[in-house]
Amino acid sequence: MAFAAGIQEMLIQSHTGVVHIFPAIPEEWQDASFEDLRAQGAFLVSAERKDGYVASVEVYSEKGWQLRLKNPFGERSFEVSGEYVMDGEVIVVDMVEGEKVQINERKARN
């Protein structure tokens, strides 16, 4: 059980009230993903990392709380499927019960 908890802490952390995606994975792990890991606030979170960068995050709200997600995209542009505001480096989305929000890296348009 401790091993699984340790791996989950590498993939997602939310004990401060802010969800952090891939906060402690080794840099050698260029590609990684997870599905439906629980985060504080009754959220199920899925995410994908490609070539060393977060590519997408999906959050499902079980109870309808405010999502506070540390921006996993850094300086890269991203898009959110719902309304959001920025609070410093934190993406804030007011969610309703049963809502799903998709947050993706914005691809350059030709």
TrEMBL record:
<dbReference type="InterPro" id="IPR049053">
    <property type="entry name" value="AFCA-like_C"/>
</dbReference>
<protein>
    <recommendedName>
        <fullName>Alpha fucosidase A-like C-terminal domain-containing protein</fullName>
    </recommendedName>
</protein>
<dbReference type="GO" id="GO:0005975">
    <property type="term" value="P:carbohydrate metabolic process"/>
</dbReference>
<dbReference type="InterPro" id="IPR008928">
    <property type="entry name" value="6-hairpin_glycosidase_sf"/>
</dbReference>
<dbReference type="InterPro" id="IPR013780">
    <property type="entry name" value="Glyco_hydro_b"/>
</dbReference>
<dbReference type="Pfam" id="PF21307">
    <property type="entry name" value="Glyco_hydro_95_C"/>
</dbReference>
<dbReference type="GO" id="GO:0004560">
    <property type="term" value="F:alpha-L-fucosidase activity"/>
</dbReference>
<feature type="domain" description="Alpha fucosidase A-like C-terminal">
    <location>
        <begin position="13"/>
        <end position="75"/>
    </location>
</feature>
